[in-house]
Amino acid sequence: MPIDNTSRPKVLVENTAVEAMALAAELFKSAVCQAVSDRHVCNIALAGGTTPHALYHQLAETGASGDMPWADVEIYFGDERDVPHDNVESNYHMVQTTMLDHVPVTPDRIHPMPADVGDLDAAAAQYESIIRRNIPAEPGSPPRFDVILLGMGADGHAASLFPGMDALDETNKLVTACFVPVLGRYRMTFTFPLINAAHTVLLLVTGADKAEAVATLLGDDTAGRGRLPAARICPRGSYVMVLDAPAARLTSLKAQLK
Predict the structure, then answer these.
(1) Percent helix, strand and coil across the chain, each rounded to 5?
(2) What 3-state class would DSSP assign to 195?
(3) Residues 189-202: what's their mean pLDDT?
(4) pLDDT of the residue at 67
(5) What residues are paired with 161 via a beta bridge?
(6) Which domains does the chain have, with CATH numbers?
(7) What is the pLDDT of residues 115-143, one digit of tens each?
(8) Among candidates 152, 253, 160, which has minimal Cα distance to 207?
(9) Model-level pTM?
């Protein structure tokens, strides 16, 4: 898939990971409130991994403050590991224990991926059918999530779309089951057609181990960028990338002045 250099993210840098998560929380809440104001509901796809974990803690701390319209939020997941939902490795379990147990979202509005079943391909197709049924779409286009939250690994992967995987070039399926060779595990994940249909994509990247991937992602080396799955993020809507200073250290970007 060719890289669309016109869809670079708006990049915001904070000095520390704590400050980056605080900013991300504000951006996340703003996008949710705007969606509810515009469309009376906000369909969100959440990420797993270590970076969003801190964001969920941040949102949980303000969960009962009344500044988030939780009653109008529908929660989905952008990827999942092939484990039961109560397993500590499960993205759903992580989000549940860090945020969902502490905010007023009713269980019927939470839609975990069924990634621990025998037929993962059928489960992915089922999850896609739920999305197609519940998420609004324009004629001939994929459903449009209001907010999709993503992290990025040091290898440039986003969701469970890792370098070299066939799923990177998927154009028909919106949700797919795939084997990740580098992990030796199966995953279920959104594909780029669904990710890129979103109204808002928020990409969070923290840590010095991500610095090389960040520099490549934001640089002018088209060939280098083409090797990073995250370079294929090119949403129709807004695209914001939040970094801490260690993640941005190999770029010319500096933290925002307070």
Answers:
(1) 40, 20, 40
(2) helix
(3) 98
(4) 82
(5) 158
(6) 9-244 (3.40.50.1360)
(7) 889 899 999 999 999 999 999 999 999 99
(8) 152
(9) 0.95
